[in-house]
Amino acid sequence: MRIEPIPAFEDNYIWALRGMGPVGRVAVVDPGEAAPVLRFLEQTRDRLCAILVTHRHGDHVGGIAEILAHHPAPVYGPALEAGDVITHPLRDGDRLTLQALGIDFEVLHLPGHTLGHVAYYRKGLLFCGDVLFGAGCGRVFEGTLEQMHASLARIAALPAATHIYCAHEYTQSCLGFARTVEPDNPAIAARAARVASLRLAGQPSVPSTLADELVTNPFLRWNAPAVIAAATARLGHPPASDAETFGAIRVWRDSL
Ligand code: ZN
Ligand code: FE
Fold this sequence. Notes:
Blueprint: E1 2-8, E2 12-18, E3 25-29, H1 35-44, E4 47-52, H2 58-61, H3 64-70, E5 75-78, E6 88-90, E7 95-98, E8 103-109, E9 118-122, E10 125-129, E11 132-133, E12 136-137, H4 145-156, E13 163-166, H5 171-181, H6 186-200, E14 208-209, H7 210-216, H8 225-235, H9 242-255
Parallel strand pairs: 3-4, 4-5, 5-6, 10-13
Antiparallel strand pairs: 1-2, 2-3, 7-8, 8-9, 9-10, 11-12, 13-14
Helix pairs in contact: 4-9, 5-6, 8-9
The chain binds zinc ion and fe (iii) ion.
Fe (iii) ion (FE) binds at residues 57, 59-60, 130, 167-168.
């Protein structure tokens, strides 16, 4: 299987999972926009075998109806946000098998950005929608900061070699904030330089690896002394829990 980004809108990525068999089969993740996906299918002549949805925001589901009008396919997505586009609702712990691609995923329910948000995990890779970004995380629109922290803690516990396929090209601006939180973290400076040259060359900064996120992403670094110190300064007292450390950093980011 090959995984390719289909750029959409200003800074969204619709991920295409392409099978290697004689007949091209492809699944797409979070098609917020139809036109780029329809173009991709036309150019590759791949046959659409599935649509995967992480959550119901328009920039992740907006293209589905038009895609289906040309390419009927099952639509997998969160049971809690099924609406009328999702034909195969999924819950935490469900296994999703894409027979046409010969792969399967474990479904992780990761509430916080939205209440129903799910991610798709298999050894080596995670499609995490708007939960985790390169050096950042999604805004907490529906859940509590505690829920978002618990969701991020589940991601943090995955193998460090896991590739993180998020839905947005936000890494550069997120690294700016990461530097504000931890000005003396050399891994952040090194990643910022790496990402700057990728972006200059027109390359995506994602997927990253969880290993990379664990040393540079302030929203996964509630154990780092510098992040705890920054949270303490924001709160006016030492945080009582990892969730409170995370929450202080998230609220800080929202205030900028
Ligand atoms: Zn979203
Ligand atoms: Fe989004």
